[in-house]
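quick one, 629 residues, struct below
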Amino acid sequence: MGNYLKPKISIKGGNTVKKVVLFLLVTLFFVTVSFAALEKDVFVSLGIGEPETLDPHYAYDTASGEVINNMYDNLIKYVGESTTEMAPMLSTEVPSLENGLISGGSTVYTFPIVEGATFHSGNPVTPYDVEWSFERGLLYDPSAGPMWMMMEALSGGEFASVEAWFEDYAGMPYTEAVDENREPTSDEAKEKLIAFYYDVIDPAVEVDGNNVVFTLEAPFAPFMNIIAHYNYWSAIIDSKAGIEAGAWDGNADGWWKWHDMRPEDTPFHTADFGSGPFELVEWDRAQQKIILERYDDYFRGAAKLKTVIIDGIDEFSTRKSIIEAGDADIAYFGASYLDQAIELQNEGKVVLTTGYPTAQVNTIHFNWGIKEGSEYVGSGKLDGEGIPLDFFTDIDVRKAFGYCYDGATFISEVVNGLGKLVPADLPEGFLGYDGSLPLPEFDLTKAAEHFKKAWGGELWEKGFKLQLLYNTGNDTRQTVMEMLKFYIESINPKFKLDVQGVQWPTYLAAQKAELLACFVIGWLADYPDPHNFIATFYASYGPYGGRQGEAFREYCRENMDGLVQEGVSEADPAKRAEIYKEIQEIAIENAIGIPVDMPLGMNVRSPEVRGWFPHVVRSEYYYYDLWKE
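---
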């Protein structure tokens, strides 16, 4: 079953032969997918792109998260659509003050671990697996990865990276303790590295009999949300199988050898070490296809679906044709294709659900310090043939770009009303959202005024060239970038922007490497608290801060980080709201980014699909909840 959608055909010879073989390939694809979709226990899901990695502690995108969420379990999970009510998963109880599992002034959380659950390897799930999973994530802590949330929670909001935490403990930078070969720089440095594990990391997550106990440095309100299912960085990993495959060995001596490794150098990158309802059969990267099969020994009961095929098909017309023919069960339709989805629903071919709230924003952000060697900045100079690497440190450049975004047209024409303009990078409905703040303003006259002032007037005289990327298949991002290109080029013929589509892993990697001058990106809440948006976009240590250059991070350290810390530490909701309003005012005044929209939900599925419901922090689909009739 695992390979039946992956025909092994070599294309050789002239154009005629290639066209015939291509026709046969396409025909075979439709025949095999149709065969799969007709089976009631086989589910075909059509999306765009593919995962970046299957390592729970590195992944930080929805495509990766969807697969991980179906392969792995967490300690607790949300109940239905709720963001506040939780149920046990690998823990037998949800900690609370009432049952005594939250104690120590809300700094100690105790989780009794279920007995009888097994990983896909057959190894039993144990309390040690839980401790090892969290400690491995904290020590691994990949750059621009998701572990900053767990670090922040355990350290009482003080630290968002293991390197910063180590420096505070040891009194020396991590880079002075470990050299480029991952070796301690001295005996003293090695002693401090080992002591850091014993004194800081190990006490934070401990096994106590059949319980796992988390000890926070200070109360941190979103802690339970951070570890709940759908948050794949808190997944429980098979430690025995992982260690055997080359992951961190669980020892204090040498933990730094596994810190911030490349994902492809970890055993979890393309493999399955989970205990969830589905196990990995195949990841065909050439075809952007993931095949999962039911884990029949799943401790909560086997899933109704036997096989799940997650197919990344970037071209919308192909996705539409497949689900229209009844050969897929769920398909991604961007909001710009709402009219076509309505047509299919009117014909009885799909069920359409729209307009439900999301905990999401789409936004454009600027890199204040593009890395040397970027292929997207032309000459790399202010000479009319490119841009300097610090191009966006000039506030007039940022403001000019902002005035070239026509948000009203984008909402009405591009996403067909399935979006809402917001003042900053915080969705409506979250604490601190303030509708009185100014929305993005489209004004080409003001844009021209700022372009003329930028770089002391040199920019207007010399012009610039810049490449804007979007991930292939994301038509709304493509339209946003083309909108900027059209309006900016209309202001001055010396301004040239080239819009190019690339595959999602390429797009994400270029962002993380700080090679893009500006990028459009979405943020789906990790957990339903405003801190998750505010810290993400406006803190120096936030995941997007790591993509916007050292100059941007320095600005945030001076102007934002203190306020962000005040916001998450404040218990009074009214005071928190005022702090978050102040942060947004600073972001708007200084043109930190361009908030594109807050999307409204849209789901297109076969009339046979049962069990689907929206959830504001879920990455795509959790197939354990789904079945077909």
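The two ends are 22 Å apart (CA to CA).
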